[in-house]
Fold each of these.
Amino acid sequence: MTSGSILEAAPAPTLPAAIIDDPRHPAVRRVADVLRSRAARPRTILIDDEENMAQAARAGVELIALYVSASRLEDISPACIPASAPELHALSREVLRGLFTGEKHSRVFALARAPRPASLRDLITAGGDLLVLDGVRIPGNIGAILRSARAFGAAGIVLLDSGLTSIYDRRLIRASRGLLFTLPVLTATRSELTEFLQDEKIPLAAMSADADDSLDAISQVPGRLAILLGSERTGPSDTLAKLAACRYAVPMLPGVESLNVSVAAGIVLHERRRLTR
């Protein structure tokens, strides 16, 4: 075995007696069932790549089974194996291709028990601002925003009309680098969000390229804010835009119509941090 091998990382898992090359094997069928699931609240989820698996384990997510390509069995990073290591399966290249037909596949992934989904109630006592993403549907953008939210101390993210069947969408886990498991991220309807903000007396601040107020002023707003960002094409819905107590624009040079929503989110959250420094 090479230095830093899976056996040195954690003695609990034992190397599989044979590489699985039968797509009907129970361990393979289990993965296929998870990939096919469209449940809003799945019981089991799939986490790709060692970094994401390690982040999930640090956040307390229970990894059930670890899957490795036969070609990677000798050089798994120790960081992805939690203290209570899960069962380990080695899969042939053909089995992996069959599982992930038409999708990006990883040579190292895990099945895990899905954590309890967050709710709006989880945001009541959490410190920091909320991010409200209205109609943002690209998992890569949501994941990048999630990473900025974690870096700049946001309390959580509320997704409206995201197109995601589940928060634990495999693409979103990848895009967030596993940080999805470290702060509340939830879906809600616009009416649910509106009622929550009114009950908790949290003002809504909308980001808009045509707003009159410069973003510089947002750092002076005391208390918590719900920061509203919409899709790059259509912006936030009229329903929520009308509820915004204030609207801000990121100052830009002429000739640029808009920023990527994930870039705008990072700028806004950084600007808000100036209030607490």
Amino acid sequence: MKVLIFGGTGFIGKRVVKLLLEKGNRVIIFSHKRKLYEEKGVEYINGDILDKNAIKEALNLDPDLVINLVGIIREIPKRGITFKAMHFDAVEKLVNSLLDFNNNIPLIQMSANGVETGKDITDYFKYKYKAEEKIKSSGLKYAIIRPSIVIGEDEGIVKDLSSILKFGIFPLPKINVKFSPIRVEVVAERIVGIAEDILKGKLESNVIKLCGEEEMNFRELIEYIASINKKKVIFIPTPLLLFRIVAFLGDKFSFIPLNTTTLKMLLQGNICSNNTNYVRY
């Protein structure tokens, strides 16, 4: 199959592209600037996902399927990088472009577990949810994937917390929620499997939630991340107010791994067992 992928150079996207190529597929990577692959079977389209003309250029390469993995965890308004722009406006342009070009091309969209309850809490979830509704009402064949916290070595939350965990200590507030983290490699495998099933007619349009095999509290989540960093950690009881202050500062300084959006998401927790139609790995 020939797959057009947006976000193919990102955290999850790199694994998806690698797996697609290993299976002998052709991949078109729509990238704003980075080129990571020189392998046979890879084409690049340089452009901005908010530019409908650039999307049209990519679609003119006649992909069998489109995967959108574009997403952010931190806004940079001065550069036009906002949750609304990246999580909704981009999807709206992509959906409309597909409808104009060929409404038979399926779309796989990366969303996030928790959008139903989180849409009224953070703009991160709000615009992910709006994007889902746009896709569902479009008439396109689709698969919306909602993973829990995605874990990968040296990237994502593991990388964000490495600067703190290297000291072997971690401030621990009282956060009485649970998480079901899932490995990035498993998410990539599932995305490719879904792509194959859609094109074979084995999967109808659907929302698929992905969670790891364990549910863990916040302390256990940090211990799990520390183990990936090959670190042992000592916890220091800390008022939640301190986390809120750090998150406020994180909104202003990008080197701080926590911001108010991520803190609100942490306080919400992230598991699948309180939902229907989920797959545990």
Amino acid sequence: MTITQNRPILIAGLLIFATVLLGLAVGAGWTDAVDWRVSHALSLRVDQNDPMLIAFMQGASWIGGGTPRWIIVILLCALVWHWCGPRCAVALGGASLLSNLASSLLKFGFGRARPDLIDHLDHQTSFSYPSGHATSAAVVYLLLAWLAPPRWRRAAWSLAGVMIVLNGFSRIMLGVHWASDILGGTMLGAAFALLGICWVRRPKEASPASLRES
């Protein structure tokens, strides 16, 4: 591989390393002040706001997790299969699964408690860092944007930006994540999206028949 081909892998490795470093900083309490200020500005405001906003944020959060997330992944795998073949579909599905596994392992490893500023306005059953919702949004929609054909690429990048930001804000505003959880999850998801792209772009190994002909 050339340096240019290796660059996405290097960036992905740095993002995973940064996710672990941020987790250590979280565990040391270095992010507490910023996390508290962000959550105080967002989650406490929602707790006092109208139920329509809460319902909207709960809907955005619902789309990004659990069964709805995997239904969306399956549908998008079918879409990218149509765009660029089975290799792209496998990359999207595989990156989504592996990033979810990595997020779960890191959650267990860091064991960070959920915010307690307000009553949780969305269902949650695991530790807080990194956010699985943020990880999923980043890996799915960034990879979708990279795999989109040129005529759809601008729309796909716009969708990626909207879904990543909306997902992150919804989790903080519903009182189930700190801002650093969202940042860590987004970096982790972006790393696996880059790895997925590297796998798609990796040259196919030559078959024995082609080697004999050469």
Amino acid sequence: MAATVLVVEDEKEIRELLRRYLERAGYAVATTASGAEAVRLLSERAVDLVLLDLGLPDVDGDEVLGEARERGGVPVVVLTARSTVEDRIRGLRLGADDYVTKPFSPTEVVLRVGAVLQRARGGAAGAVQVSSYGGGRLRVDEARHEVVLDGTGVELTPTEWGLLTALASVPGRVYSRYELVNRVRGYEFAGYERTIDSHVKNLRHKLGEAGPGVVVTVLGVGYRLGWARDP
């Protein structure tokens, strides 16, 4: 069954352009120009990914993004004219999985949608299958796309999942931000290195008190998994 993409964009020409390209790529597409309508659609139908313009006329796009995160962690690709690094970081901190600035190539948008959906379905690169770390405290099950910490499931966004599995593939190995971008994204994303820290912060937060010990900062280099893999 084709994945369903909800396009939330108030500019009709852009909305229709994205619809055509996504449908041509084999996706089922729903569109709306309204943030309030987007929230309603998210509550009424199954959506696999939201392509979201933050600059909506009725409801702030941040609110729609938050709603998608509450609806089972539906992946969100933000589409906006807000192009500064600070704006990117803000969107990613709110839970966006990718960030595309206007003007854009519709073909690139379709590729990014596909990459995010692949990660959401467990297709991120990494050697982890079913492994435990820290004396059994942390369990990563790639086949089921599950993370369990101290017996409790941890719900991660696709990007957070990709980060964790990338680090867990070789525990203790230090990964630079550039390496993590390419392992998580599957392609180079110019300017994304500076925003990887926001995803790390979100991941640590979800891991609670164990977060800083699981994902360790190596100053001037990048990050590593701080807990050893169990035999």
